[in-house]
Amino acid sequence: MSTLTGATESAGEAVPLADDVLQPRPRRRRAGGEGAAGRRFMVGGLLLLVCWAMLSPVLWTAMVVTKPTSIAFINPPQFTYHPSLDAFVNLWQTTDFYSYLSNTVVVAVVSTLFALLLGVPAAYALSRFPSWISVVLLVAALVFRALPRFAVVLPMYDISRSLGIYDTKIAVVAALVAINQPFSIWLLRNFFAEIPQQLDEAAMLDGCSRVQVLWRVMVPLMGPGILTAGIFMFLFAFQEYLTALILTDVHSPTVPVFIATQLGQTLPLLQQAGAASMLLTLPVIAFAFIAQRYLVAGLSAGSVKG
Amino acid sequence: MSLSRSRVSALAAVAASLTLVATGCGAGSKTSADTAASVECDYKAPSGKTDVNVLAYNSSSVDPYTNTMVKSCTKGDVTVNHQPIDFAGQVQKTTATLAGDTGTYDIIETYSFVIPQLAAEGKLEPLDDLVDEYGDEYGLDAINKNMSGAMTYDGKLYGLPMQAQMLIMAYRKDIFDKLGLKPPTTFAEMIDDAKKIQAAGEVKYPIALPLLASADIVTAYDAALGSLGQNLTDPKTMTANLDSPQSKQALEALLSLKPYMDPQVTTFDQPAVQQQMYNGSAAISIMFSGRMNDLTLPANSQYADKMAFAAPPSVNGGDVLYDTVSVDGWSIPANAKNDKDMLFEMLSSSVSEKASKASLPAAYPARDGMVTDDSMPFAAAANESIAKVPPSEPYPWTAEISNAITPIVANVVLGKTSVQDGMGKMQSEANKILTEYK
Amino acid sequence: MRRREFAVLAGPSILVMVGLLVLPLVRTIEWSFQKVDYGSPGSFVGLDNYQEAFSDPRFGKAVIFTVILTLIVTAVLLVAGYVLAVLVNGLHRAKPYVLGLLLVPYVIPQIVGATMFSWLFNPNYGGVLSYLIEKLTGAHILWMSETWPNRVVVSLDVIWAMLPFAMLIIVAGLQGVSDEMIEAARIDGASTLRLHLSVIVPSIRGVLGFVALISIMDVVRTFDALVPLSPQAVQIGNESIMLYIYNVAFQNGGQNLGLGSAIDVLLILLIVVLLLPFIRGVAKETRAG
Q1: Predicted confidence band at B305 (pLDDT cuts at 50, 70, 90)?
Q2: How confident is the model over C191-202, as pLDDT tens digits?
Q3: Which residues of C touch B269 (CB under 8 A)?
Q4: Which fold has domain B166-324+391-437?
Q5: Is A98–B28 a contact, with Cβ atoms under 8 angstroms apart?
Q6: Which residue has the higher pLDDT, B197 or A128?
Q7: What is the pLDDT of residue B27?
Q8: Which InterPro entries match (chain C) (predicted)?
């Protein structure tokens, strides 16, 4: 049941399936009184500090973009100022930010759906078909996850031009599906491995075909796994810069591409790029808060345990 | 909590947060900047929906022309598309779109420096016949002949000039007045001024030049070489002059400025130098004129009202300045799919008299008689700069050689290569390229 | 499962992999033996591109820079990720909020995050952190233009972007460590350090391996972070292999697609070598399962 190193002397008890994991475990309070309280205080303080450090680039950017333009980047930096939202207003009025954002979301959602649509059955097949071909596929999926973008995307640039789909969302989606799909197989395979084969056999005795077993029996059981893989696929696609940079010109740039092309600008455009970063960041922060519990649950239930 | 219910509500929340952002402030409306003029753009529209894609980097001097074109020529079924992009992005997209039989862009922003190479490779459409046909309608005869000349290669016009950009020195008048300094006319004077500014404790690193190691630094070297009376190459003998005494002087001149420039100056492109001036962390800067108007806008800087302008100094005295003139214009790629007449009318309308006027004072329009002291705070500096510029080198190999020697110049300025070694390497790189053109 | 069923289920996925990954890869390999410009057919030049790559000192420097960055970042991610995960895992009600906050750097696109990062260190753009460091220590450090300070900034940025992922995976792994085992070790009188090193760490070995795997994959391909953070990467030896490819095949009108492709191929080989232990693990395990 281990994924990688073949470590076998693992956790002792079988790892519970997702439904159990989502339940808060009853925790025993360790004895210790005063000392424990002090330690908890220290741990809390330390974590607060870490959180602050991890968020500081975002917080500083939030300050930069709400400053008046003339002091946005002065040195030494100014810490007090009258906040204004002008950079956001200008961004919205003078650029097509709305369409960049919708391009980004559409590309991310569609490519995630396709990656899962391809990845789920493939992962299921891999988990039930012990043969050399499964080994080859899995190793290939691993290597494909690690390919340098240029090796794939520059030829895609050429190919998409000759197919006439260059500079469309279709080209970006196709590229992202190709790039992300191998990893979804990789994440999902272990969830399937967790589900006992007897279940398949029982369902097939009832007259289900393999495809029916997958959709009627496996997928409902795989909720947390598919959700986990989906969240990762979405994040990868949402963040992708090089692929969208190389495969788009005027019709479907994504927000990361837009922001990157604004980095070589002067004020006030540079401040607008900062505003764009914040507008892009806020929804994904909400996403992070919601996603974290599913990720922990999903990941511990299947994909990567030792 | 059951898994399925919480999952659904979570997804709903994510979806809601995304749509909130997408629609929260109403649909994004694209309004062109204030500088865009509304002008006549009377092309014969083709039947059916047509996209015209324009590639032009954003800067306050190019934007007026681009915005005018987008605003005036988008009508009916014809849409003129322009996406924001920085200069490095434009360079990269230009290469990509001109390669092969088809490209994305129908109209591209070009400049005199790259015209010879692109024209020699046959990547641009010659415009002479179109000028003959539409010249009267758009008053193209008022476009400065020298500037048209700069966009001409082998007797044919490949770019319709919109504006000229020349190097200009911007300096902090308040500091200069306080210390009784005069705008420097040579590098030695500039260093003197910088020393005094440093000594007075006004600014730690008074001089700011864009010396970005991967790009701008070669422009600086070229400007210094030109001011010393030397060209990069000699087209008659087809040899490079990069190991000449003047080349040595040019490199040493750049090195001599280093103590007075920010130690990270080789990471600065023009926007970064603008930022230094905005921040008050430099007192003297030399950049292309298209960057100057930004410095005078109070919205950008607290020091906006303290900026003054002069022609750049010469390196060693004499009448030729540390300078270069770049003519910006519009070109039509040879592989553009749309009707060339329509495209030409679009770019003509964007350089028409009304449109050119709207670009003032940010740009120095290509039309004669537009620039006056009233219309532009740095008009005198600009005119002097144009008058004393080193001769241009409109050869197809100029851009290629510049790219090839950029890292070597950077290493010399960074002190990683000695001047002598650097010159040897530059010379051999350049001669290698020249042999391909013999 | 029968062969036919396998084909039906895995077929579409394999088809996409072949069509959209293998074919482009083949094109890249083809280009690596050619002198080629965008949009025009290339001409065969044998091993010239590979020879050029190996004789260019920039390539060697890029490989060394990339590999060392990868090793350092991976080591930091494992240690810091583990410590952070243990701390977070010990929380009760605050846990989801802390996790959510800590995940923020991971969900921001790298190029955007690196830009935010650059505004902390670049004095020309505010540079609040470089300013504070100078105030506190008196040292004027050239974060953007000197080799080692810039390496510190780049490493910090990459760690900042990836630490949340490492922590998340390890937190997930810790859910599988049974309380009984920990209790037993405590009864045996194990110190906290021993408890972690000889009980918990070994039992989540696979998880740590996964973190190392992903970290190696991603850091070897560092590109986005360098664009805003190292404007003169070439001159100060902080050019990653990916940035080197970009510079020769794309930047400044550069068109050397053949050389770029040859380096792509070499980079893939390097990645496969680095991943070899993991590949062998996967192969062994799949055959067993």
Answers
A1: very high
A2: 888 888 888 888
A3: 231
A4: D-Maltodextrin-Binding Protein; domain 2 (3.40.190)
A5: yes
A6: B197
A7: 31
A8: MetI-like (IPR000515), MetI-like_sf (IPR035906)
Find the range with the poorest average confidence among A109-113, B58-62, B239-243, C148-152. Answer: B58-62
Query: Which has the higher per-residue pLDDT, C82 or A289?
Result: C82
Chain A nearest CA to B271, separation (Å): 5
Which of C:34-73 have CB within 8 Å of A?
A: 38-39
Lowest pLDDT segment from A69-78, A210-219, C156-165: A210-219
Q: Which two tokens stand for residue B42?
A: 């009377």
Q: Does the reported pTM lie above 0.80? A: yes
- Using a CB–CB cutoff of 8 Å, tell me whether A186 touches chain B: no
CB C115 within 8 A of CB A273: yes
Judge: C1–A75 Cβ closer than 8 Å, yes or no: no
What residue spans define the domains of chain B? 50-163+328-369, 166-324+391-437
> Which pLDDT tens digit goes with each residue over A141-172?
889 989 999 999 989 988 898 888 998 999 99
Shortest CA gap A4–chain B (Å): 28
Q: In the CATH hierarchy, which top-level class contains the domain B50-163+328-369?
A: alpha beta
pLDDT-wise least confident of A121-125, A128-132, B76-80, C49-53: A128-132
Chain segment B34-89, per-residue pLDDT in tens = 567 888 888 988 888 999 999 999 989 999 999 999 999 999 999 999 998 988 88
Greater model confidence, C265 or A282: C265
Q: Which chain B residues in 175-214 lie under 8 Å from chain C, judged by CB atoms?
A: 212-214
Domain edges within chain C:
50-288
Which burial class, exposed, middle or buried, applies to B179 when counting CB atoms under 10 A from its CB (0-12, 13-18, 19+)?
middle
C10 and A21 within 8 Å at the Cβ level: the answer is no
C50-288 topology per CATH? MetI-like fold (1.10.3720)
Do B50-163+328-369 and B166-324+391-437 agree at the fold level? yes
3-state secondary structure chain A: CCCCCCCCCCCCCCCCCHHHHHCCCCCCCCCCCHHHHHHHHHHHHHHHHHHHHHHHHHHHHHHHHHCCHHHCCCCCCCCCCCCCCHHHHHHHHHCCHHHHHHHHHHHHHHHHHHHHHHHHHHHHHHHHCCCHHHHHHHHHHHHHHCCCHHHHHHHHHHHHHHHCCCCCHHHHHHHHHHHHHHHHHHHHHHHHHHCCHHHHHHHHHCCCCHHHHHHHHHHHHCHHHHHHHHHHHHHHHHHCCHHHHHHCCCCCCCHHHHHHHCCCCCCCHHHHHHHHHHHHHHHHHHHHHHHHHHHHHHHHHHHCCC
Q: Where in chain A is the domain with CATH 1.10.3720.10?
A: 92-303
CATH of A92-303, one of 1.25.40.880, 1.10.3720.10, 3.40.1480.10, 3.90.180.10: 1.10.3720.10
Residue B311 has pLDDT above 90, yes or no: yes
